[in-house]
Design a protein that fits this description.
alpha/beta, Pyruvate Kinase, Chain: A, domain 1, 2 domains, 5 strands
């Protein structure tokens, strides 16, 4: 019966795998929902920022964050995960980076977020100027994202780079995530306004709020619009980058959820097939033993 013990051992192992993958699927589902809900948490703040932005947007055209850099050099930000087990999430982002570098002749420096991105840059012998792999957990805090967005802003405003491009996984839905390259800097005032409007419109009547805002615009405000813009624009950029990280993290958890569901379903199928094989073999052995006993009894009668 050694073969029976071996099959039972395999069945037990597969069932344990099924339990683990099911637990990981549930954990990823909860974390994905939490990443999505983080966007809703700042709805009131975004609406107030939009009201301010509408009042200062006529003074923004000369700000340096809206102008392309002087040198043919690109600062690339690569956002992956700390772990595998999330299907093609990391691989697709890395493929996007490779495709972008082949299509563009400019020199590229890298900033990485999470370990798989840093490992990718090291393996490809590219120039890494900053790594934030150990600064973030699954619970992304704005205080840490500000450090990254400030670095990107400072590097861009130093005129060393033509633009800043972020490579991450865009969250479409729980089943579909698309790896994209998004130009973070320079940014246009229209992009900023659309970003704020898109979030605020989910919770407010934008036209009514803006109309009310314009009705009180005759008040004199200190400091000047230009001084106000210098403080407001970095805050909006911080929020935009924070949302990119939330979206990337939601994509990661969604991809891992789907991968673990697939692994769970496969483990269940294998366990069922092994159980069927074990039962058939066990039934065949019982039938054989019964036949042998019957033959032995008949031989005694003779």
């Amino acid at each position: 019966m050694a073969w029976a013990k071996e099959i039972r051992r395999k069945i037990s192992s597969i069932k344990n795998t099924w339990k683990i993958t099911k637990a990981m699927e549930l954990i990823s589902t909860v974390k994905m929902k939490k990443a999505q809900d983080s966007v809703m948490a700042k709805k009131d703040f975004v609406m107030e920022m939009l009201k301010i932005f509408v009042r200062i947007e006529d003074t923004l055209k000369d700000f340096p964050i809206f102008k392309e850099g002087r040198w043919d050099k690109i600062l690339a930000v690569v956002i992956t995960s700390n772990k595998w087990l999330c299907w093609g999430y990391n691989i697709n982002v890395m493929k996007k980076v490779n495709a972008y570098m082949k299509a563009n002749s400019e020199s590229v420096d890298f900033v990485t977020i999470w370990k798989k991105a840093a490992s990718f840059v090291a393996r490809t012998w590219n120039n890494l100027i900053a790594d934030f792999s150990y600064d973030f957990s699954d619970n992304i805090q704005p205080i840490y994202t500000k450090r990254v967005s400030k670095l990107l802003r400072d590097e861009f405003l130093s005129w060393k780079y033509k633009k800043v491009v972020v490579f991450y996984s865009h969250f479409v839905n729980t089943i579909k995530q698309v790896s994209v390259s998004k130009e973070f800097l320079p940014v246009s005032s229209n992009d900023m306004k659309e970003y704020l409007s898109l979030i605020a419109s989910k919770f407010y009547d934008i036209e009514e709020e803006i109309k009310w805002n314009k009705d009180i615009s005759y008040y004199e405000v200190e400091p000047t619009k230009e001084d106000l813009a210098e403080h407001v624009l970095p805050i909006i950029l911080d929020m935009m980058f924070y949302d990119l990280l939330l979206e990337a993290k939601a994509s990661e958890h969604s991809s891992r959820m789907v991968a673990m569901k697939s692994a769970k379903d496969n483990a269940k199928k294998i366990a069922w097939a092994l159980t069927l094989k074990y039962n058939k073999a066990r039934q065949a052995m019982i039938t054989k033993e019964v036949s042998e006993i019957t033959v032995w009894v008949e031989s005694l009668k003779d």
